Known about the structure:
The chain is of the alpha/beta class and 431 residues long. The chain is 38% helix and 23% strand. InterPro entries: Amidohydro-rel, Guanine_deaminase, Metal-dep_hydrolase_composite, Metal_Hydrolase, Metallo-dep_hydrolases.
Amino acid sequence: MTTTLALRASILHFSANPQYHPDALHWHTDGLLLVNEGKIVAAGDYTQLQAQIPAGVEVQHLPDRIIMPGFIDSHVHYPQTDMIASPAPGLLPWLEQYTFPTERQFEDGEHASEVARFFLDQLSACGTTTAMVYSTVHQESVDAFFTESAARNMRMVTGKVLMDRHCPEFLRDTAESGAQDTETLIQRWHGNGRQLYAITPRFAPTSTTQQLGLAGELAQQYHDTFIQTHVAENKEECAWARSLFPNARSYLDIYDQFGLMRERAMYAHCIWLDDTDRARLAETGSAISLCPTSNLFLGSGLFDFDAADAAKVQLSVATDVGGGTSFSMLQTMNELYKVARMGGRYLPASQMFYLATLGGAKAMQLDHLIGNFSVGKEADFIVLNPKATPLLARRSAHLNSLEEQLFVLAMLGDDRVVERTYIAGELRSPL
Ligand code: GUN
Ligand code: ZN
């Protein structure tokens, strides 16, 4: 469908990482965003761009609102939507008590579709327009998810979980069946509209060497697919992984040995790494998914920002629901900031908004398509109301800088701040 949109409001986006490029934050107090056929036509100052507004197109004026690119959540489990906020003493008991029984239900395609719809509605309401998503071990769970995300024309990444040991029988595939299903799903969905496939070994402890080997072969054969897994999240999990793969130099090295480190590989958590691991992530173009709400909730640990920066690893931010406790990337920034503080680091709000938009796109190697308002990019964007709640309105009356404005949004904001979400130029939320 052809759409021509002109929106007048403040505009925020990034052209690079503001940590290293101070001019990379672009702010237009009185801005104009022009969209045609789902793509960005122009973004900049209203006064400079108003001559480009096509005849017959009415400008939607949104005073005191901020337009920015949609958020990118680089690691989240849609099947865990119904078990968010489940109490357990740490990762491994939480997986046993809640996660595995919940994921069992996704053998039923109808159930999977219903949860996928709710999940995608939540993401849209929170302003998240792209996510790298875990499905379950069942093919049906991937078909259901992609059917729903394709119907909404959302740029989404997911994959069938590979898991052939150390889990209940009802969630187990085999090395061969897992690889076969993965290949079928890649052929069915990867590059189908805006849908992209991720080869998804759950984590090393639940895969045999044979399964990881076949996953590595698929990753090489289908080089433009994604890879996603968990690594070095929790101390008990690390010890378990090391005991199962005694020949590996480190937990991360298990994946490296099977050819699972490359561009478009997303490693969630990465708390208990060493410098050699971080260097390998950077060398191979693999990226880290920071999951602050999940890591605090499950008591997994605090991410080391300084070490990651020293190694020049690509970072992205993620909710990791259901280990994470919110679908909101603003709430996730709130906890990211505090995790950084606990490590002696100060994370400016501009850095957090970068990580949640263009940084995520770069980590996923999708920055040629999404992440900012460069001309020709896909028009996934959100409209924020910085005074959406009484407290936000009150606090916003005392702002000294744009950085403070963004910081207040990150600390006090959530889905209530997200007034509209557009997917490829079409209004998705509210409908
Ligand atoms: N490690 C293996 N599976 C999972 C999962 O579902 N959530 C989290 N947070 N960690 C994991
Ligand atoms: Zn996870």
